[in-house]
C-alpha cells in the first residue's frame, strides 16, 4: 500500500504530518505548522478546519473554499518568525484555476490565544 505524502511540502506522510492537526487530535505547535496544515486543508476543501483556525475577528463570513475549482500544486515556506504570541510566515503557494497557473506570495500573520495558533491575515507580495 502506498503512503500519501502530505500536500504541505514537508515530504512527510500525511498521517504523520498535517492529518493529526486537521482531524483535531492535536493543535499545531507553531505558526508554520498551522500554516502548512491550512494549506493542506485548502487542498482538501476543508472549510471547517480553515474556519476553526482563523482568528474570529478577521474570519470572513462568505465561503472560504471553492469546492475544487482550484488545483493546488505546491507550497514553499520562505520564512517563519515567531515572537512570543505573534508570528509571521512567508510562503509561496502555486495553483491552477481553469487550467491557468497562478502564484500566491503571502506574508501571513498569526496570533496565539490560549495555547493555540490562529491565522489573522496576510499581505500579498
Task: Describe the structure in your own words.
This protein is an alpha+beta fold. Helix content is about 20%, strand content about 40%. It has three helices and four strands, in the order H-H-H-E-E-E-E. It has helices spanning about 20, 30-45, 45-50, and strands spanning about 70-85, 85-95, 100-115, 115-125. A four-stranded antiparallel β-sheet has the order 1-2-3-4. A hairpin with a 2-residue loop joins strand 1 (about 70-85) and strand 2. The radius of gyration is 14 Å and the shape is globular. The model has no long low-confidence stretch (mean pLDDT about 95).
Short recap of the structure:
The chain is an alpha+beta fold and 125 residues long. The chain contains 3 helices and 4 strands. It has a 4-stranded antiparallel beta sheet with strand order 1-2-3-4.
Write the layout of secondary structure elements.
Layout: H1 19-22, H2 31-43, H3 47-52, E1 70-83, E2 86-97, E3 100-113, E4 116-124
Antiparallel strand pairs: 1-2, 2-3, 3-4
End-to-end C-alpha gap? 40 Å
Strand order of the largest sheet: 1-2-3-4
Strand content: 35-45%
Structural class: alpha+beta
Q: Could you report the average pLDDT, rounded to the nearest whole number?
A: 95
**What are the segments in which pLDDT stays under 50 over at least 5 consecutive residues?**
none
- The total of helices stands at 3
The radius of gyration computed from the alpha-carbon positions, rounded to a whole number of angstroms, is 14 Å
Choose one word for the global shape.
globular
Instruction: Spell the H/E element sequence.
Output: HHHEEEE
Largest sheet: 4 strands, antiparallel
Domain YchJ-like middle NTF2-like: 30-122
Protein name: UPF0225 protein H8K33_11705
Family: Belongs to the UPF0225 family.
